[in-house]
Amino acid sequence: MRYLLIIILALSVSSFTHHHKQIQNELNYYLQRHSVQDEGFDMVARYAEEGDSTLAAYMPRGEFKLTSFLHLKDYKREGKCLAKDMYGRIIIGHFHADTLVYGIRVDSLGIYSGQFNRHLQACGHGAYQSADNTYYEGHWDTDRRNGFGFWVSPTNLKAGIWRNGQFRGERMVYTTERIYGIDISRYQHEIGRRRYGINWKQLRIKGLGRRISQQRVNGEVNYPVSFVYIKSTEGISIENRYFAGDYNSCHHYNIPVGAYHFFSTRQDPALQASHFLKNTMFKRGDLPPMLDIEPSDAMIEQAGGPEVMFKNIRIWLNIVEKRTGVKPLLYINQRFVNTWLDYAPDLKSDYHFWIARYGEYKPDIHLSIWQLSADGYVQGIQGNVDLNVFNGYQGQWDEFIREQTIR
Asked: Pairing mode, if any, of strands 290-292 and 257-262?
């Protein structure tokens, strides 16, 4: 038994220390962009500081007795006992009235430490330290990750809601400390046949939209507009007639501003880049250009498939980056991430992303901006407005402005 405990502890220490630097980078990235108000922040922070402390927390105390290794019809296990489940996994657990309460379970892939149900399944709070240098801590239900939890590897961290073992996404708490912005086009000036201006003096975010749960809002929704993105062009011929006026107003009122192009999978990417650069205003210190990519699956197939599409996207990106001196942002939705982005690992690793997903979730990739709502209310603008939040706080925003703006 002593040797079993030594093996368990050695596996845990080895898993945490191997690739420790890469894992710590992922943990630091998360901690810099979240606060104590975010669900699970304390859990991630404790792991970053202490490693897998759950192993010690759930290791049963006391001595084994001879009867602890038996499971007889007329004997009820109590206290620290050794058991096996139906799959042959070894459990060192704390039993009460023959029911496993908590403990350590070892299998061929790693170690689970936490709470159990009466069927010897992980249920409640627990952690799993894998031999492949990944770690999960959070809520379990019948041996599946279910509810809030975080998973970290040397290359990624996912903290948020899990359903039946699958990661669904992260939930954000909206506070006055976060950095909010808007993206606009001609639709903020034209509603039906009526035309409207924007009252730039009054700009203030007053409502986050119908899909945002009030449980995710801390305090009153009354946020300044800290950045604005304006649609400039689309394809090779479409222009936003309001771009110049809105762009100049942002500079007049000292609001960080950027421009975006709506990408067409059916038109030449070099001509699209030329159209964007010709009809867009740029100044030093402006936010990086953004490429809006929203094709349907049918459009991607008609264009020749994902490889051709990403080849064309790279052409646009390279031309615009050469002109502006900064890598553009890529605006995509979560389905695009899940379905197509793995075809372009270079883009996934080398570019900043702006994700559109409304409601409480966002995907598990590093991103700069998240579009949280398409029906926000902004004082000074008629109709619905797209609302966005920067992934980080003031320190990270200042760094973004220093490193990512047009030179």
From this structure: parallel
| pLDDT exceeds 70 at position 159 | yes
Q: What residues contact 190, with CB distance under 8 A and at least 6 apart?
A: 196
pLDDT at 6 over 80: no
- Write down the pTM of the prediction: 0.86
Q: Last residue of a domain, which of 116, 135, 169? A: 169
**Secondary structure of residue 116 in the 3-state scheme:** strand
- Which tokens belong to 93? 């657990």
CATH code where residue 313 lies: 3.20.20.80
Question: In this prediction, what percent of the chain has a pLDDT beyond 70?
Answer: 93
The confidence band for 216, taking pLDDT boundaries of 50, 70 and 90, is confident
Closest CA to 274 of 308, 241, 320: 320
Q: Are 131 and 191 in the same domain? A: no
Residue 15: DSSP 8-state? H
The answer to whether residues 185 and 292 belong to one domain is yes
Summarize pLDDT for 249-288 with one digit per residue, the tens: 999 999 999 999 999 999 999 999 999 999 999 999 999 9
How far apart are the C-alpha atoms of 93 and 143, rounded to whole Å?
16
Query: For residue 222, what is the enclosing H or E element?
Result: none
- What contacts 25, CB < 8 A, 6 or more positions away? none
User: Do residues 275 and 190 both lie within one domain?
Assistant: yes
Question: What pLDDT does 311 receive?
Answer: 98
Distance CA 205, CA 194 (A): 23
* 259: Cα separation from own chain's centroid: 24
What is the number of domains present in the chain?
2
> Is the Cβ–Cβ distance between 117 and 95 less than 8 Å?
no
